[in-house]
Amino acid sequence: MTIIEKPWGKEQILEKNDKYMLKKLTVYEGKRCSLQYHNYKTETIYVLSGKLRIFIGESGEECFSKVFSSGQSVTIPPKIVHRMKSEEHCEYLEASTPEVDDVVRIENDYKRN
Fold first, then answer.
1. Rounded to an integer, what distance in angstroms lies between the CA atom of residue 39 and that of residue 51?
2. pTM, 2 dp
3. CB under 8 Å to 1, separation ≥6 — which residues?
């Protein structure tokens, strides 16, 4: 299992093959990932613990948000802008298509491209 430390928490890659990828993500309380979209990648988010606010929309200006709790999930198709923010320490699974480098960051708290 590969663990990747991030400024907002960490990613654990549980499986990656030519058909799908499965990660377990931890987001520390009050932290958030980039506002982003994917050109090809589809993601399904399943919350394991904590409260995760997910911003989603056609563009960064048009995002709405909803808080997801343990046992709740959402699927985010390609081209949809999204961002995850932890309302409290949160762990979730991300099942996706395997396009690892398919990320377009619109806004980033940590000055990453």
1. 27
2. 0.91
3. 12, 13, 14
